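FAQ

Q: What does a record look like?
A: Structure on top, sequence underneath. For example:
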């Protein structure tokens, strides 16, 4: 399966900022899609992904249809935590529909979300005729995130670690349900289990001492100990003395 990186998606979308439709809602995204002269926010998103060679798996001009397709066919792509370049479906307060508009996710603050949208403007959120970068309050946007399988996350982890705050980490974790949190924890455990012991100090010698004392069997030494495991290790260590 061909994939696109977050950087590719956002670069293509950003190049389109400033584009304006012609009279009668005619625009190049509608021409490309084959259905011109209609609200085109989803056609813009579809066009951006197609330009990378990794088009979305379901071609539709409807926000609602795309969301329902993912809910039925690839529900794992409906994400609580977005990544740059993913698809955002908006639900404006007080409207008849819960899928009012769409855009491409760029970033999020504590209370805001920033996207690059087609067919938007300050005068009309979801039918404004421009491609623009928009920042909205999360409480107003009510976003649903779709992270397509065609999107490869190329996040600069060093930059991410430097910029993200503990409060933001906590806020993201609070959005996960119990099973999702446990899945995240076990994935972190599995990752740490594959890491080698440090070589900058005598970790191997200390591990062997812990094995001799019966504190550990020596397997998965880089996995953080749970609270009950720590208590048992302390108890065994005291007994050996």
């Amino acid at each position: 399966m061909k994939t696109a990186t977050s950087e590719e998606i956002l670069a293509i979308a950003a190049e389109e900022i400033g584009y304006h439709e012609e009279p009668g809602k005619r625009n190049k995204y509608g021409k490309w899609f084959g259905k011109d002269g209609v609200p085109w926010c989803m056609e813009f998103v579809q066009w951006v992904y197609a330009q990378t060679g990794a088009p979305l798996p379901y071609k539709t001009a409807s926000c609602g249809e795309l969301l329902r397709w993912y809910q039925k066919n690839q529900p794992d792509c409906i994400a609580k935590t977005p990544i740059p370049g993913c698809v955002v479906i908006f639900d404006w307060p007080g409207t008849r529909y819960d899928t009012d508009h769409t855009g491409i996710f760029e970033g999020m603050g504590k209370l805001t979300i920033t996207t690059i949208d087609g067919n938007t403007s300050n005068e009309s959120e979801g039918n404004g005729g421009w491609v623009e970068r928009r920042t909205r309050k999360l409480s107003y946007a009510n976003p649903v995130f779709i992270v397509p399988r065609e999107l490869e996350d190329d996040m600069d982890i060093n930059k991410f670690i430097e910029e993200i705050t503990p409060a933001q980490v906590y806020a993201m974790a609070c959005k996960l349900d119990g099973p999702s949190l446990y899945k995240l924890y076990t994935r972190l455990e599995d990752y740490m289990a594959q890491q080698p012991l440090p070589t900058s100090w005598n970790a191997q010698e200390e591990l062997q001492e812990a094995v001799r004392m019966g504190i550990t069997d020596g397997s998965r030494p880089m996995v953080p100990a749970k609270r009950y495991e720590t208590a048992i290790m302390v108890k065994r260590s005291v007994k050996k003395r």
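Q: Is there anything notable about this one?
A: Residues 152 and 232 are 42 Å apart (CA to CA).
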